[in-house]
Amino acid sequence: MTDEQFEIVKEKQIPVEVCPSSNKATMQLAVLSQIKSIPYLYRCGAKIAPCCDDTMLFNTNMINETFELVNLLKLNESQLKQVMLDAADAIFDTSCLQKLKDEIEKVQITTEEAKTEEIKE
User: Fold this and answer.
1) Dihedral of CA 108/109/114/117: which sign?
2) In this structure, are residues 23 and 38 in contact, taking their beta carbons and an 8 Å threshold?
3) How far apart are CA 38 and CA 21, in angstroms?
4) Interatomic CA distance for residues 83 and 75, integer angstroms
5) How far is the C-alpha of 38 from the C-alpha of 69, rounded, in Å?
6) Which of 2, 27, 44, 92 is 20 to 30 A off residue 14, Cα-Cα?
7) Roughly how many angstroms between the first and final C-alpha of the chain, as a whole number?
8) Which domain holds residue 89?
9) The pLDDT value given to residue 72
10) How far apart are CA 10 and CA 72, in angstroms?
11) Could you report the average pLDDT of every consecutive run of 10 residues in the chain (121 residues)?
12) Which of 15, 19, 22, 78 is nearest to 42 (CA)?
């Protein structure tokens, strides 16, 4: 992606589908952490949408791809929730959008950090 294309993606809030296992394989990388574009996009505020390419070929599924993305970006639960909410905005079938977002919002944050915040309040 060129700098100009990246600026358009960021400005227009165009979601970028990321498929960690596929990216690792097609880029012939030894480890996923060698992928620099996904963390760069995320840090710069681009909306990313975790996806799953070729489940049979790469022996993966959405749970694995989400797990890989969490590890790559070192997301906490609230950051993951926001990534998933942003990704939901990219779906084509908007008739189920609100239901999907409601289900994502139901996910409970259970980290020690979140528990500490609850105690402070």
Assistant:
1) negative
2) yes
3) 12
4) 9
5) 9
6) 27
7) 44
8) 3-120
9) 92
10) 20
11) 86 89 87 86 90 84 90 91 91 89 80 48 48
12) 15
Domain count, the chain: 1
CA proximity to 62, closest of 36, 42, 84: 84
Rounded Cα distance, 47 and 84, in Å: 10
Q: What is the spatial distance between Cα 3 and Cα 9, in angstroms, rounded to a whole number?
A: 10
State the amino acid at position 5 in one-letter form.
Answer: Q
Token couple for 98:
């609100």
* Predicted local distance difference test score (pLDDT) of residue 115: 45
DSSP the chain: --HHHHHHHHHTT--EEE-HHHHHHHTT-SSGGG--HHHHHHHTT--EEE----HHHHT--HHHHHHHHHHHHT--HHHHHHHHHHHHTT-S-GGGHHHHHHHHHHPPP-SHHHHHHHHH-
Report the pLDDT value the prediction gives residue 116, as an integer from 0 to 100. 46
Tokens of 52: 């799953």
